Structures are given as structure tokens and as C-alpha cells.
Amino acid sequence: MEVFIPAAGLGTRLKPLTDSIPKALVEINGVTLLEMQLMKLAREGFNHFVINTHHFAGQITGFLNKNNNFGLKIDISDESRLLLDTGGGPKKALNLLNEDNFLIHNVDIISGLDIKKFMEFHAGNGSIATLAVQKRESSRYFLFDETGILCGWENVKTGEKKVTRKASGELERFAFSGIHTVNRDIGGLMPPGEVFSIVDFYLSIAQEVQITYFEQKDAGFIDLGKIANLDEAARLLKYNK
């Protein structure tokens, strides 16, 4: 089982912490976000990790080297030259991935998602990608029709709305959790450029291929990319210990 962990971002929402360290090395209760994800996913059965780096890239590789990669098989997708955004990152990482399906899991997410069920659901649904989503308040939503197929996206704060596939029935809003499972054949559909958004890409191919969702019902979720959520996560994780 393989997973791509995006860790290259600038972490602007975590300033001033990320003025001197990458987001992946921000700590909660003395443990970095990166280590938390590696250990959690290793317990879930993942045995090959690909991590992209850009912002303070040397700190991430140094951290991994110091800890002997935590005994895991880890490859680095180096974006030091150019930050490739949420779509270009996975595109480049495909060169380091081998399985037909792989997980993408943002480094700054704590989730109660049952990843085994999620992966099994994707393997059996015939989709090029499956997105983990929730019914929770957000400013941006993916829009799925009554058959569970991605048809569009909406920003409720700005009023921007994009519908790129004819819907079967009414559209329903779901907040994306930053976790998705992707079939490697998706690489053949990706645009020729290096830098692009995964959201824009998914919307651009939604008319021709099936992208579906897996709803995280009653599953916890914390976005650690926000300063205000770090204390909440620290309390939660301390309590769970």
C-alpha cells in the first residue's frame, strides 16, 4: 500500500510558525505533523511513502535522515526548484509510485476516517478517484449528484460555482477532507504543465471520467493548517493517550 503525503506547501495559515520551519515539522505535544501521519498510516498497513518537499525542504529530509526514516520506506519528490501546487505534486510523484491505486493524505489533517474501508470502496467502485468528504461547515464544497458522482464545486463565500458535468438529480454539497484515493491511470489525463490545482483538474475531467465520494459519517476531523486548531488537537491527542 502506497501513500503520497503533500508536505511542500508554504504553510501561510500557520505563520509565524512557518517563518522558520516547514508545516510538516510543526509539533503537537512534541510530535511533528509528519511523524504523526507516518506512524498512523504505517499502523494502517501502508509500507511505501512518497513525500514532496519545497518550503524548507532540507529540514524535512534532515528530520527523516536523523530518525532513519522511522524504519519506513520513504521517497522524496523534490519540488525545491518550483512548487507544483496540489495537482502538479501528485503528477510528479507518480514517477515514484508503483501500485494501481494509491492514497493521497495531506500532512496537516487529523481524521477518524476508516482508511481500509475507504481504500476498499475505491477499489470496487470503478472511479478514477474517490474523495473523502464530510457533511460539515466549510467555505468551499464539492458538488455530487444523486448517484455520488462529482459534478462541480462551489465557494459559498464568494458565490463562485462551477458545474462541469450534467447531474443526475439534485446536487449535494460535501466538504473535502484532504484525503483521496487515486488510480495511477489518472496520470494520462493530467495537463502537460507542471503547476496546476487538483480541484481544477478534477473538475476538468469530471465530464469524461467518474470521480466519486466516500462520506466520513461520525468521523472526527481537524484541519491542522490553522493556528487556532493546533491547541484543540493538542488537547484531543493528550486526552486520547
What attributes does this structure have?
241 residues, Spore Coat Polysaccharide Biosynthesis Protein SpsA, Chain A, ten-stranded mixed β-sheet, 14 strands, globular
Write the layout of secondary structure elements.
Blueprint: E1 2-6, E2 27-28, E3 31-32, H1 33-43, E4 48-53, H2 57-66, E5 74-78, H3 85-93, E6 101-105, E7 109-111, H4 115-125, E8 129-134, E9 140-144, E10 150-155, E11 161-163, E12 172-183, H5 198-205, E13 211-215, E14 221-223, H6 227-240
Helix pairs in contact: 3-5
Describe this structure in words.
With 241 residues, the protein is α/β, with parallel strands linked by helices. The chain has one domain (2-240): Spore Coat Polysaccharide Biosynthesis Protein SpsA, Chain A (Alpha-Beta Complex), CATH 3.90.550.10. Helix content is 26%, strand content 28%. The protein has helices at 33-43, 57-66, 85-93, 115-125, 198-205, 227-240, and strands spanning 2-6, 27-28, 31-32, 48-53, 74-78, 101-105, 109-111, 129-134, 140-144, 150-155, 161-163, 172-183, 211-215, 221-223. The strands form three sheets. Strands 1, 4, 5, 6, 8, 9, 10, 11, 12 and 13 form a ten-stranded mixed sheet that branches. It has a two-stranded antiparallel ribbon with strand order 2-3. The protein starts with a strand and ends with a helix.
